[in-house]
Design brief:
Domain Pyruvate kinase barrel: 29-360
Radius of gyration: 24 Å
Low-confidence stretches: 1-5, 13-18, 154-158
Protein name: Pyruvate kinase
Shape: elongated
Strand content: 15-25%
Keywords: ATP-binding, Glycolysis, Kinase, Magnesium, Metal-binding, Nucleotide-binding, Pyruvate, Transferase
Number of domains: 3
CATH superfamily of the largest domain: Phosphoenolpyruvate-binding domains
Enzyme class: transferase
Catalytic activity: pyruvate + ATP = phosphoenolpyruvate + ADP + H(+)
CATH topology of the largest domain: TIM Barrel
Length: 527
């Protein structure tokens, strides 16, 4: 496939463009991660977010304290019960983030062509002439001519609330900068980003470790978003830390790629991580604007071929304050789907945006429309070619299940799984129909008590494109008889009928393990 060719189904009927979207039990195959915060933490609003299509709730610990986030999470649990919508939990670390500290929260006005000093001495009050920062080593990391960006959220992209600085000289531990644009800064903390400069801060800070080992353990987080991942070793160290925290040994690590350093080591990071978050906000500062799209397409393709979820950020910034996205943003969301994104991550749009529910709903509708013209045939052939021969046993079963489902125009693929791996492999081939992942609980023991696994595996599929989980009855654990499997299949079919995605005379493809054999079978439903 030529590098510039889009994965579009040809031809697109013009009449189909004007057809209204049909309601469905899910807004789209592409998943939506919503960041919960001041404008989206009540039970009512969170319930609206879940109904609109949010399947993963992100808790950003770069601001506010654990008690605040715990209150929000309790509201999320209440909303999940009332809506009966599943939702996974993602903890986003602070990482190697530099910040300007404005203790008095006074408004700071910076004038173009003026000078401002960045100092590690936090005894100073933040003013238009001097800005205290939380990092002692900036003076040792930058040189004359380097670019520094400061913004309240690093989300807005608005040049009136964020400022570009150019380093003019280093004086001891202080950095003197020329102001490149006029801006007004509000609030107590502003993010500081030094473009293409190595910052000697740990990826997993002591504060991060404390939050994970307390808040994270208490709430059994499904995903850890590892901010400022720069090397594969960052992921290995985080995994080693999680392995000592009981249930969190099952938590999946999503490496957040935010700068050129992470981009340079992308292949090794992808190999170690469970998934990737492409943080386009920071990357848009670190990279020249004309290079961002190229990185996006290349990174998403690598994630797709590896069968690991890829999450894209910064798509509808304008919906923070507006009810509709711009034309460019709507196209950007669609292109993210066509490029292969598993999920769209909404940050400021739901955290502090005026329309969190409407934003999720709108993004879901755009994703759904893009999925209709996604060229699955071309993608399938490309993926099979990449995997090569001989395929592994599981890869062969997964690709065969998708091929069979497309050939017989099945309405759904049902996959029995205990680890979730088989279902994720099926989803890797991007079938045009949803995949119902029936997670079969496993009985496990720590020599003190017996328990069932499966809840983690079910929730972790909520970030994978096209994958929808169902946790089987723990009275029928993995390894049960074929009669038990038939019972679970009937429950899964009834579940699909109740959701409206399976109807009489539909064909359903089932992928399951019977004894030592893996089987793909086609069922035609009766009345």
């Amino acid at each position: 496939m030529p590098s510039g060719q889009l994965l579009l189904e040809e031809p697109i009927r013009m009449a189909s463009i004007l057809e209204p979207s049909k309601p469905s039990f899910f807004s789209a195959m592409t998943k939506i991660v919503g960041t919960l915060g001041p404008k989206s933490r009540s039970v009512e609003v969170i319930s609206g977010c879940l109904k609109a299509g949010m399947s993963v709730a992100r808790f950003d610990f770069s601001w506010c304290d654990p008690d605040y986030h715990q209150e929000t999470l309790e509201n999320l649990k209440t909303a999940i019960k009332s809506t009966t919508k599943l939702c996974a939990i993602m903890l986003d670390t602070v990482g190697a983030e530099m910040q300007v500290v404005n203790k008095s929260e006074t408004t700071i006005t910076l004038q173009e062509d003026g000078e401002v000093v960045l100092t590690p001495d936090q005894g100073h009050e933040a003013t238009s002439e001097i800005l205290p920062i939380n990092f002692d080593g900036l003076a040792q990391s930058v040189k004359k001519g380097d670019t520094i960006f400061i913004g309240q959220y690093l989300f807005t992209g608005s040049e009136t609330t964020s400022v570009w600085l150019e380093v003019s000289e280093v004086k001891g531990n202080d950095v003197v900068c020329i102001i490149k644009n006029s801006a007004t800064l509000h609030g107590s903390l502003f993010t500081l980003h030094a473009s293409q400069v190595h910052i000697d801060l740990p990826t997993l800070t002591e504060k991060d470790k404390e939050v994970i080992s307390t808040w994270g353990v208490k709430n059994k987080i499904d995903f850890l978003s590892l901010s400022y991942t720069r090397h594969a070793e960052d992921v290995r160290q985080a995994r080693e830390f999680l392995s000592k925290l009981g249930d969190l040994s099952q938590t999946q690590i999503f490496a957040k790629i935010e700068n050129v350093e992470g981009l340079t080591h992308f292949d090794e990071i992808l190999q170690e991580a469970d998934g990737i978050i492409l943080s386009r906000g920071n990357l848009g500062i670190d990279l020249p604007p004309e290079k961002v799209f190229l990185f996006q397409k290349s990174a998403l393709n690598k994630c797709n071929m590896a069968g690991k979820p890829a999450v894209l950020t910064r798509v509808v910034d304008s919906m923070t304050d507006n009810l509709r996205p711009t034309r460019a943003e709507a196209t950007d969301v669609a292109n993210a789907v066509l490029d292969g994104s598993d999920a769209i991550l909404l940050g400021a749009e739901t955290l502090r945006g005026l329309y969190p529910v409407e934003t999720i709903y709108t993004v879901g509708r755009i994703c759904s429309e893009a999925e209709k013209v996604f060229n699955q045939d071309l993608y399938f052939k490309k993926t099979v070619k990449f995997v090569g021969e001989p395929m592994t046993h599981l890869e062969s079963i997964a690709s065969s299940a998708v091929r069979a489902a497309i050939k017989v125009k099945a309405s759904i693929i049902i996959c029995f799984t205990s680890s979730g791996r088989a279902a994720r492999l099926i989803a890797k081939y991007r079938p045009t129909m949803p995949v119902l992942s029936v997670v079969i609980p496993r009985l496990k023991t720590n020599q003190l008590k017996w328990s069932f696994s499966g809840a983690f595996e079910a929730r972790q599929s909520l970030i994978v494109r096209g994958l929808f989980p169902m946790l089987a009855d723990p009275r029928h654990p993995a390894g049960s008889t074929s009669a038990t499997s038939e019972t679970i299949l009937k429950v899964a079919l009834d579940h699909g009928k109740a959701l409206g995605i399976i109807k009489s005379h539909d064909r359903v493809v089932v992928c399951q393990k019977l004894g030592d054999a893996s089987v793909v079978k086609i069922i035609e439903l009766e009345d």
